[in-house]
Amino acid sequence: MENELRVYNSLHRKKEIFKPIHEGHVGMYVCGPTVYSDVHLGNCRTFVSFDIIYRYLMYLGYKVRYVRNITDVGHLENDADTGEDKIAKRARLEQLEPMEVVQKYSNGFHDIMRMFNALEPSIEPRATGHILEQIEMVQEIIDNGYGYEKNGSVYFDTLKYAEDKKGNYGELSGRKIEELIAESRDDLKKQDEKKHPSDFAIWMKASPEHILRWNSPWSVGFPGWHLECSVMSTKYLGETFDIHGGGNDLKFPHHENEIAQNTASCGHGPCNYWLHANMLLMNGRKMSKSDGNTISPEELFTGESPHVSKGYSPMVVRFFMLQTHYSSTLDLTDEALQAAEKGYRRLIEANKSLAKLHNHAGPSAGKVDQDLNDLMDLAQAEMNDDFNTPKALGRIFELASKINSLKDGHLPMNEVSAETLERLEASYHAFVFDIFGLKDETGASGDDNSVLDGVMEFIIEMRTEARANKDWATSDKIRDKMKELNIQLKDGKDGTSWTVGE
Fold first, then answer.
1. Beta partners for 68?
2. Between 256-266 and 225-237, two packed helices, what is the crossing angle to 10 degrees?
3. What would the pLDDT profile of 408-466 be if each residue is shown by its tens digit?
4. Among 42, 125, 387, 429, whose CB has the most other CB atoms within 10 angstroms?
5. Sequence-separated (6 or more) residues with CB below 8 Å from residue 22
6. What spatial distance separates the first Cα and last Cα of the chain, rounded to whole Å?
7. What does the alpha-carbon distance between residue 164 and residue 172 come to, in Å, rounded to a whole number?
């Protein structure tokens, strides 16, 4: 049984045993959103993936400092050193102050993350709040010989960095400087300012019309996009921390340049483990606004899109994301969401059934008892294998089947000890709600649903009374009306239960 956590380190392209720098503590930095528009569903997938990683690390007992930044300056339109600042452009188009844009879309991002039940990070720093620290790092890079100023802008000298073997530029992404030369275009803006086509800006002189600007030793300007993460990760987690995460699309140039900046200023890379989440497809293709193959989180929840037959709740979408490993591509289809909806309900229903088994444990352990313990061990072993949620989910589904069989009498309760039943309740709840991060949206008991629970309890009492009085017309009317409201009443030997949906 695998009881050590192993993670796939993108830098070394292999799974490695996870050993934090400080025992019992984990420092994790994840590149957050650039807040110039509504958050993309593909980004949501990345943040949900790292939310599960965050949750599982805490489940293992680690004290985690999770830092996820907000990019609110320096991210240009083409993700390089040209074009307009994304936030400044949106401010111009919407006739708002740049910080109004930042606040508007930060609020929207947080709203969506709450809907997906993602935990808040420990620290959420903004790039504009760390301009002085970024200027300091630029100066350190210049002082160490890996930065040069030209016409008020400062560039990172990638060729010198590579020649001095300070770091293997391209190691994370698999790109080589020779390839970058071949891919470069002679007509790129400011290309003549650079010593080498692969050099990148760490400070940019602001043009007269540029709104976001700060004083620096080199010019009135703004920091490069890649610099902010180097600065904020080291400020809050130290020069070397445990995990750096983000989307696969950030490997190059963003994360590659982060490594170069940290090495040039601190003498080494920023972290021990690089983790990358893969992209979200839709109907087998990359999402694209230009060809209409896209859907927003809101459209997915409301069903107001030609790509879905109806709306799906945030927890169904989150469950859907669990079904694929974070490092693999995930294909969003209406059929897959329908299947996820059924799977999600099955998990929640099994949790309700489990609560009813509480006082029915047997006097001693048997084969069923052993099977339950084995499945719980296997679920954790799957999560220890690079946070493998689809395989762990499969083990939890096996547990759900056994729980239902115990409830229905198909498996003998006298073969399950009180100790195992207690462990099962704790483990099942931990996986479904604490690790997978799901919430019960089907009408389960709990603070959020207490009013609905009370109403349904009253309705079931009325129907039970009608049946006792052989008032079948009223009994059937209540059942049919509930069905119209998508609430299913199920009569069993222990009374009547209810669920929302199928």
1. 30
2. 60
3. 889 988 888 889 999 999 999 999 999 999 999 875 444 445 556 667 777 887 788 88
4. 387
5. none
6. 37
7. 18
The number of C-alpha atoms within 13 Å of 20 and in the hemisphere containing its C-beta is: 16
CB 74 within 8 A of CB 228: yes
Three-state DSSP at 313 gives: coil
The H or E element containing residue 351 is: helix 334-356
State yes or no: cis peptide before 297, omega within 30 of 0.
no
CA 156 to CA 253: how far, in whole Å? Answer: 13
Residue whose C-alpha is closest to residue 26's, from 2, 58, 68, 3 = 58
* Residues 6+ away with beta carbon under 8 Å from 492: none
Tell me how long the chain is.
Answer: 502
pTM over 0.70: yes
Q: Tell me the residue type at 164.
A: D
> DSSP 3-state assignment of 130?
helix
Task: Output the six-digit token pair for 236.
Answer: 């809050």
Cα separation, 305 vs 294, whole angstroms:
9
**Cβ-based neighbour number of residue 446 at 10 Å:** 11
3-state SS, residue 218? coil
